[in-house]
Structures are given as structure tokens and as C-alpha cells.
Amino acid sequence: MTLLTHAIVGAAVGKVIGKSNIWFGIIFAFMSHFVVDAIRHGHYPLRSKFKDKNDPLNNDIIIGKDFLFDLIKIGFDFGFGLIFAQLFFNGLTFKIDWTILLYAFMGTFPDALQFAYFKIRKEPLVSLQKFHIFCHSKNNFNASPAMGVAVEMTTSFIAILVAKLLT
Fold this sequence. Notes:
- This protein is mostly helical.
- About 70% of the residues lie in helices and about 0% in strands.
- It has one domain.
- α1 packs antiparallel against α2 (about 20-35).
- The longest helix is centred in the middle third of the chain and has 26 residues, at about 65-90.
């Protein structure tokens, strides 16, 4: 899933849990990442990604000229996730709800930890990466970007709808 979808789902989970149980919100927003990654989805290409088809624990992000391009792409994805989470759960206001941003961030955080794993490859990142790979859908819509977008939009819409109905 894109970081935008992870941010929206993380914010939705946190919104349902609320501000009175912020630690539960943080934990469940973080865990929502793995639940959503289990849904078949697409991925946008990263030029700097090295993929080992035989052993996904050997995947990597190569820091070089392509990495800067990918970092900009990922930055926009993450930024839009935070903006849309804020808009969907806080409305058109100039007052920022920091808990929504925290929950949205926590929904995306496992992917940042994945990058940390690529560069460090030590515990607890190794175990977390194995868990991430285990949870992640083995099938994808990379060959059908339109279907991937439809799944992302549907996932986000359902998360927003459930959060709005339960809060």
C-alpha cells in the first residue's frame, strides 16, 4: 500500500480509539500497517530498490542518484498521507489535530523501519522485517495499476467510513 493509504488507515484506527487511550491508538495504528499490507495491492516503482527474488530479506535500497528521486516520491506520498488524514478527520480547519498526525505517522512507520532494516540488519529490525514479509500479500496488482489504485481508494474509503460511523 502507499504511505497515503497507510496514513489514512492509521489515523482512522486512532480516531476510533480516541485521545484518552493514546498508547493503544499508537499501537493499533502501527499494527494497522501489517493488516492493510495483507490486502492484495500494487506498488509504485522505486528506481533505487534492489529486489532479491530468492530471498526477500536481501532486498535493499541503494543510496545513489536514483535514491534522491525515490526519496522525493516517497516524501510526497507521506506528505499527502498526513494532509489527507488531517482533512478527513479534522476537516477544513487551520487547527492541527496532533493526535491524528501521530496516528497517521504510526500507520506509515513500519515502512520507515523497513528502510532502517535495509541499512542496519540487526535485531529487532530483522524480526520486524520477517514479520512484515510474512504479513505482506504475496500477490500484487503491479501489472494493473488501475486495479491497485482502486484497492487503495476502497481501503481508504472503508477506513474513513468506519471511523466516521464509530466516532
